[in-house]
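Troubleshooting: if your tokenizer reports a length mismatch, compare your output against this known-good record of 414 residues.
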Amino acid sequence: MGGQFRFSITIWRLAAGLGALASLAMLDLALSPAAVAGVVEPQIAQVTEPAPDAEAPAELPLRLLPATEAETVWPTLTLPDDRQALIQAINHSFTYLATPKAGDDYQHYPVPGITRDRVWHSLQRLRQLVVNSPNDQAFQAALRRDFVLYTSIGSDGEGTVAYTGYFEPQYRASTVPTAEYRYPLYRRPPTLDTWPQPHPTRLDLEGADGLAGSQGPLAGLELVWLASRLEAFLVQVQGSAKLQLTNGQTMSVGYAGRTEYPYTSIGRALVNDGKIDPENLSLPNLIAYFETHPEELDRYLPQNERFIFFREGGGGPPTGSLSVPVTAGYSIATDKSLLPPGAIAAIQVPLPQQTAEGTWSRQLTTRLVLDQDTGGAILGPGRVDLFVGTGPQAGELAGRINTPGRLYYLLLRP
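Known-good structure output:
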């Protein structure tokens, strides 16, 4: 899902499982050779792969793309201008794939033939090609020779995938409460795993005004305080954030856990109540509404009963649900119960481009990326969130990504 804003006119995504990211899924309307010479590849522990005849879902999320269809995709895959950024993202996937968690994830992966070992070796070969290919023609020829393409079935069974963007927002905060900085983010309760069900709701934990946390089970778990209640809520929506502290230092906070409630979109609630027209629903308009009607925060924020807990990061890059950093432009978030974690993907979607005059247009873009994140509202084979970076400019770009496209995965030939 870093405190990334996932801009989705569909859902201000909550980073459920995100180590650091999240999406502006809150809006909830329909519709991420020298450089690697010193890298030491971690050893993969032996993992028993599922039996070939293991029972599979009736409809698999990926299907092998016929060679004739693949021929329309290979010519669109080019070397990036910044090869190091893609290499960095590949290396982060290696870090994940070397963990016991990756072994467990792939033991339960539903698509036959897509295993952790195959993904690992596919990444090895791709990294070699990115480092050594002299030009796009040689790169494409090697991809065509060595790899096959799988396509996501999408939301309609025909490959249609809804794309949104997310970014890491930045906020001001204080490590001590003051008259200005009153709204806390909280550490994970050490006894969270043993809390009885149903868990306390947001209203139970922090009160209608967001200031009652010190009077209940969250007392003493305050990590940092923000000046704006809405910003504190948005960090929970994002699952993480980068914070500029009043003492001049920078802190990052990342996802550490949550209560067991479904995510509820306050953007959708405002539309349903006639407060904002569906056509005008955007993050700036949502913020403007609450700035004009601050008393409405007490009514709407508790409607999202899910509550997010945080851990302090080192101020480095945002981290995704695989517990590795995400890379701007080269990391995506998908439903990890259906799509292969850490694998090489290719997005094909019209992306916003800013012109020299400051206007925006869309350009059909096909780009190699790594599948390294997820989120509570990123569900099914027809949803992708692209991480686009940190700060206001990234936020503007993320907010403009809301369009259908295609999603492919590259695996070495068996």
